[in-house]
Amino acid sequence: MPAREFLLPDLGEGLIEATVVQWLVAVGDLIAVDQPVAEVETAKATVEVPSPHGGIVTVLCAAEGETLAIGRPLLVVAGEDEEAPVAADPGSGPVLVGYGTTRRSTRNRRDLFGGREPATRDGTSATPARGAVAVASPVVRRLAKDHGVDLTKLRGSGPGGLIVRADVVAATRPAAGDEAQRVPIRGRRKTAADRFTRSHGEIPAATCWVDADATELRTARRRISTDARPIGLSALLGRVCVAALARYPELNSTVDVERGELVLHRAVHLGFAAQGRDGLVVPVVRDAQKLSTAELAAEMARLVERARTGELSLAEMSGGTFTLNNYGVFGVDGASPLLNHPEAAMLGVGRIVARPWGHDGGIELRDLVQLGFTFDHRVCDGAVAGGFLRYVADCVEEPMRLLADN
């Protein structure tokens, strides 16, 4: 039977490597065209990689936790392809460049492999055993990977020897005499560390703050939001940012260091922090300046849901020109965040809390929020940054200003 190498495909967005999180097949398994064979983690996301070949897996070219360069062999399959990869459709899942989709082939799988059933993700087919691959859920595997725990060396305490969360937690406790634990920095954590280091070292950033009365903003949200068309505070703040960037376009820019130029972006690709399945991510709303408040809210909600389920594509997390960072959801009042390189500015929003505040000639309990604005001092001076932040604060305090100015 001819053998075919499956090379780690181009995963897009200039990515150069990926780490094998877990194998979904083992040597001896029979696989179909477009069957996911491995879960890999890139600098942007964790994705399943489908094989463009069908046949018998003869070699796995990397161990779990090993990092491979794009274009290096991932696995070897023996056998003849009986069918080309199926075309993508709207419900077929994420597409990897040139490699079909994660949807299974439509041909009868038993016919494809001479009456034998190809391997499934849960290992239930009658194929050779997975050998040293430990039995654990994806969540437990993720926990083990993040803490550098080798699952093949653990004895599971769950039913049938299943490795459960408690087993991994116990393995992370230092043994007698151990003073520290070493956790590999790789994947998205490594990319984030590199980007933050570059941002801190390359961008002369400054931050200014202002307290704003968000009482009227909250009232406006309650009035315009419905069950059929929910609008959150983040969407309203995003709408304010878009309006402010129209007044101060130099803040929707990047610096081309090599050419010594300021690149002013016409489109506002609004990034915002969201809690993903594997940690914080920054999805991007494309052309936010073209969207109404309701459309912006709907798109942000869609991206948040995809982040929660771990389905965000690389394109949905790339190309931002300005970031809205709502760290108030963590219960903090303010922060001085690093810029999301190469962006020139970021608006930070603290928690909204009732505090005494001067209002209509008296002192009242009002809903206050601290707004922090971090900016690249190469693109503007403090007057521009202060003007941007003051306009944002004014819109928070008087939402009707948006209608008057736009």
From TrEMBL:
<dbReference type="InterPro" id="IPR000089">
    <property type="entry name" value="Biotin_lipoyl"/>
</dbReference>
<feature type="compositionally biased region" description="Basic and acidic residues">
    <location>
        <begin position="111"/>
        <end position="120"/>
    </location>
</feature>
<dbReference type="Pfam" id="PF00198">
    <property type="entry name" value="2-oxoacid_dh"/>
</dbReference>
<comment type="similarity">
    <text>Belongs to the 2-oxoacid dehydrogenase family.</text>
</comment>
<dbReference type="Pfam" id="PF00364">
    <property type="entry name" value="Biotin_lipoyl"/>
</dbReference>
<keyword id="KW-0012">Acyltransferase</keyword>
<feature type="domain" description="Lipoyl-binding">
    <location>
        <begin position="3"/>
        <end position="78"/>
    </location>
</feature>
<protein>
    <recommendedName>
        <fullName>Dihydrolipoamide acetyltransferase component of pyruvate dehydrogenase complex</fullName>
        <ecNumber>2.3.1.-</ecNumber>
    </recommendedName>
</protein>
<dbReference type="InterPro" id="IPR050743">
    <property type="entry name" value="2-oxoacid_DH_E2_comp"/>
</dbReference>
<dbReference type="GO" id="GO:0005737">
    <property type="term" value="C:cytoplasm"/>
</dbReference>
<dbReference type="InterPro" id="IPR004167">
    <property type="entry name" value="PSBD"/>
</dbReference>
<dbReference type="InterPro" id="IPR001078">
    <property type="entry name" value="2-oxoacid_DH_actylTfrase"/>
</dbReference>
<dbReference type="InterPro" id="IPR036625">
    <property type="entry name" value="E3-bd_dom_sf"/>
</dbReference>
<feature type="domain" description="Peripheral subunit-binding (PSBD)">
    <location>
        <begin position="135"/>
        <end position="172"/>
    </location>
</feature>
<keyword id="KW-0450">Lipoyl</keyword>
<dbReference type="GO" id="GO:0031405">
    <property type="term" value="F:lipoic acid binding"/>
</dbReference>
<dbReference type="Pfam" id="PF02817">
    <property type="entry name" value="E3_binding"/>
</dbReference>
<keyword id="KW-0808">Transferase</keyword>
<dbReference type="GO" id="GO:0016407">
    <property type="term" value="F:acetyltransferase activity"/>
</dbReference>
<dbReference type="InterPro" id="IPR003016">
    <property type="entry name" value="2-oxoA_DH_lipoyl-BS"/>
</dbReference>
<dbReference type="InterPro" id="IPR023213">
    <property type="entry name" value="CAT-like_dom_sf"/>
</dbReference>
<dbReference type="InterPro" id="IPR011053">
    <property type="entry name" value="Single_hybrid_motif"/>
</dbReference>
<feature type="region of interest" description="Disordered">
    <location>
        <begin position="111"/>
        <end position="132"/>
    </location>
</feature>
